Amino acid sequence: MTNKEITCFFCFEQFEVSLEIGSSFIGNDIEIYDCEICCNPNKLEYEVYDGEIIINNVGDGNE
Ligand SMILES: [Zn+2]
């Protein structure tokens, strides 16, 4: 499990999310995280390569 700080798409506050990444997982994934401050759903698009998590986009999870 890896913690990453993201900036909320709605209120622009930063909060930490916990990403469950399998040790052998490589590729792209999308998960929804509710903001800790405004409770809106943030759609997190991220990429895992060689144990590194790269956040590609944080968007509107209501879509
Ligand atoms: Zn927020």
Give the SSE layout.
Elements: E1 2-7, E2 14-19, E3 27-34, E4 41-49, E5 52-60
Antiparallel strand pairs: 1-2, 3-4, 4-5
Zinc ion is lined by residues 8, 10-11, 13, 35, 37-38, 40.
Could you say which structural class the secondary elements and strand pairing correspond to? mainly beta
Question: Which segments are poorly predicted (pLDDT under 50) over 5 or more consecutive residues?
Answer: none
Give the overall average pLDDT.
Answer: 94
Biggest β-sheet description: 3 strands, antiparallel
Strand arrangement, major sheet? 3-4-5
The first-to-last residue Cα distance is: 27 Å
Helix/strand order, N-terminal first: EEEEE
As for the number of domains, it is 1
Helix segment tally: 0
Q: How much of the residues is beta strand, in percent? A: over 45%
Bound molecules: zinc ion
Q: What coarse outline follows from CA principal-axis ratios?
A: elongated
Share of helix among residues?
under 10%
Count the beta strands: 5
**Cα gyration radius (Å):** 11 Å
What does it look like?
- This protein has no helices and five strands.
- The mean pLDDT is 94.
- It has one domain.
- Strands 3-4-5 form a three-stranded antiparallel β-sheet, with no helix packed on it.
- With 63 residues, the chain is mostly beta strands.
- Helices cover 0% and strands 60% of the residues.
- A hairpin with a 2-residue loop joins strand 4 and strand 5.
- The protein is elongated, with a radius of gyration of 11 Å.
- Bound molecules: zinc ion.
